[in-house]
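Re: weekly structure request thread

Next one in the queue (151 aa):
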Amino acid sequence: MTVEPRPTPQRLDDLVRECLKDAQRDLAERSLAVTRQMAADVPELPIDPDLMKEALAILVRDVIRHATPSTRLRVTVKAGRNAQMVALKSAGTGLTDVQREMLFTGEARSGSLARARSIVDAHGGMLWANGRPGRGMTYYLTLPPREAGAA
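Done, posted below.
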């Protein structure tokens, strides 16, 4: 499935907030609290809002699914000179090295982590995960800091 973004100026933190709002029911069902660390100075980026929200929603759903019930998720959005970054961290079972390598493989079908990676790749960004067994996991998404007027 080819991903062809139609970029418009968007704030990444706004899309993350929308995804967290959409996930409120899933968060409540697992008794998960969310700590938000959102930088106030996140500039607009030329991204396709529908595609990027799809990728973020896939990551939010997956981090909720792997979180230990009644714990806290940490969501961080920040902008630097070299990239904008989203980090989604949960306490939970964590990942072995083999699991981490396999996360984003397979067909990029709707709702899959491979689909999320293909969307991020199409925007010139990177998507990866870190974690250790028994210590939780973190998804990282970075996008280049292009000016919103550039495509």
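The helical segments are 12-22, 24-29, 49-66, 97-102, 113-122. The chain has five helices and seven strands.
Next request, please.
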